[in-house]
Amino acid sequence: MNSGRVRVLRPEELGEGERERWRELRAKSTAPRNPFMEPEFTDVVGRVRPRARVAVVYDGGEAAGFLPHERGPLGQGRAIGLGVSDCQGPVLRQDLAPDTRQLLRACSLSSFAFDNLEAEQELFVPHAAEKHATYVIDVARGYEAYENVLRAQSPKFLKTTLAKERRLGRQVGDVRFVFDERDPAALRTLMGWKSAQYRRTGRRDRFAQEWITRLVARLAGTRAPECTGTLSVLYAGGRPLAAHFGLRSATVLACWFPAYDPEFAKYSPGLILHLRMAEAAAAEGIGMLDMGRGPAEYKDSLRTGELPVYEGTATRPGAGAALQWLGREPVRRAHGFVRERPRLASLAVRTLRGAARLRRP
Questions:
Q1: C-alpha radius of gyration, the chain, whole number
Q2: Which of 100, 174, 295, 337 is most buried, with most CB under 10 Å away?
Q3: Strand ranges in 139-179 using DSSP code E only, listed in sequence order
Q4: Is the pLDDT of residue 344 over 80?
Q5: Are the CB atoms for 66 and 59 separated by under 8 Å?
C-alpha cells in the first residue's frame, strides 16, 4: 500500500484535528460536496450503529485518508449507513493510492459492500458490479434559469404544476413553504406519511427499523456548515400537505425522504414541494439537488441531468467474503434481471402493491 499505518477508530474517537483534515480533503475533491460524505454524518451513524468505524490512513505522519464503514460478523464490511446513505466511499488525498486488499486487511475486513459509491472513487469503482444513475437538479445559475430549462424540456409539466399550486391556494387555503422547519411534530408527520407509503407500495418500511428513526431524529438537529439536517414542509390552509427531510452542504441538497398526504394527491403537493425546495436552495447558494438513484416519474419531470453511482463489493480471500457474496450477489442479480426487463419490472411493482393491499387490516 502506498501509505503508512492505518488506525481503526470509533467515529467519536476521531480528534478535531482529524475531523478538520477530513473536511479539508473533501473540500479539495472535484466531486460534489455531498453531505453524506462528511464526518458529521458518520459521527451520527456511529451513535446509532455500534459497529461503525473509521479507518484513518496516515502518510508521512499526517492523516491522508478516511474510510468510514461498518464491520459485521467475520469482518464483512459495508459502507457507513448502507441502506440509507446515498453517497459512499473513502475520503483520500488526491495522490494517495492504497492497495484495496491491504486496506481491507488493515481494517480487519474480509469485504466492503457499497450501493451508492461516488463516481470518482478510484479505489473501489473497479470492484463495482453495477452502474446506476442518480438524478439531479441543477440550480447553479438560479431558480429562474431552472424554470427556463423545465419550460424547454417539459413545458406541460411546469404549467400544470404551477396551476395546481394556484388551485390549491384557492380551494384549501393560503399556500406556505418552509425550507428549514424546526417543528418536531412536522418530522413525525413526515415519518408517518412515509411509513404508510412504504406499506402501500409493498416496500419494507424503513422507519420500522429503530436505528433509522433514531438516525433521522439526530440528523434533524445536526447543524454543521457541510452537513445540516433540513426538513422542508409545504402547508396549505395551515396544515402540512407534503414534506421532505434531507441533508444539505453549502452546495448540495441531498434529497432523502419525501412524502405527502394522499388526501391531497390531486394537487400534486410533492411536485410543488420540490419546485419550492429548488427555489429556496438556489436562494441559499446551493447549486444542486441530488434526488438519489432509482427511476421515478417525479424525478423524470424535475431532473436536469444525472450522475453515475456504483454498486458492488470489494473482497479479499476468506470465509467472510464468501458469505458476503452468498448474502448479496444472488439478490443483486435478481434485481438487475428484473430492472432490465420493463414488462417484468411493471409486473413486480403491481405484485408488491397487491400484496400490500392484502396485508392491510
A1: 21
A2: 100
A3: 175-178
A4: no
A5: no
| CATH dotted code for 135-307 | 3.40.630.30
What number is the average pLDDT over the span 156-160? 96
As a residue count, the chain comes to 361
- Which three cell numbers, joined as nine digits, stand for 213? 428513526
* Distance separating alpha carbons of residues 127 and 81, to the nearest angstrom: 19
HEC profile of 181-234: CCCHHHHHHHHHHHHHHHHHCCCCCHHHCHHHHHHHHHHHCCEECCEEEEEEEE
Burial degree of 319 (CB within 10 A; 0-12, 13-18, 19+) = exposed
For the whole model, what pTM was predicted? Answer: 0.88
pLDDT of 325 reads 52
- CATH architecture group of domain 6-129+310-359: 3-Layer(aba) Sandwich (3.40)
Q: Which three cell numbers stand for residue 93?
A: 488525498
Are the beta carbons of 96 and 1 closer than 8 angstroms?
Answer: no
The answer, yes or no, to whether residue 260 has pLDDT greater than 60, is yes
CA 99 to chain centre: 27
pLDDT (tens digit per residue) in 188-212: 999 999 999 999 999 999 999 999 9
Helix (H, G, I), strand (E, B) or coil at 278: helix
User: 93, 25 in Cβ contact below 8 A?
Assistant: yes
Strand 111-118 and strand 76-79: pairing? parallel
82, 271, 253: which is closest to 163 by C-alpha?
271
Provide the pLDDT confidence category of residue 74 given band limits of 50, 70 and 90. Answer: confident
Q: How far apart are CA 86 and CA 319, in angstroms?
A: 28
**Of 207, 184, 179, 185, nearest to 195 (Cα)?**
207
Fold match, 6-129+310-359 / 135-307: yes
Average pLDDT over residues 87-96: 96
Compute the distance between CA of residue 55 and CA of residue 112 in angstroms, rounded to an integer: 13
User: So where are the chain's domains?
Assistant: 6-129+310-359, 135-307
- Residue 249 pLDDT class (50, 70, 90 cuts): very high
The chain-wide mean pLDDT, for the chain, equals 90
- Do residues 272 and 264 lie in contact, with contact meaning Cβ atoms separated by under 8 Å? no
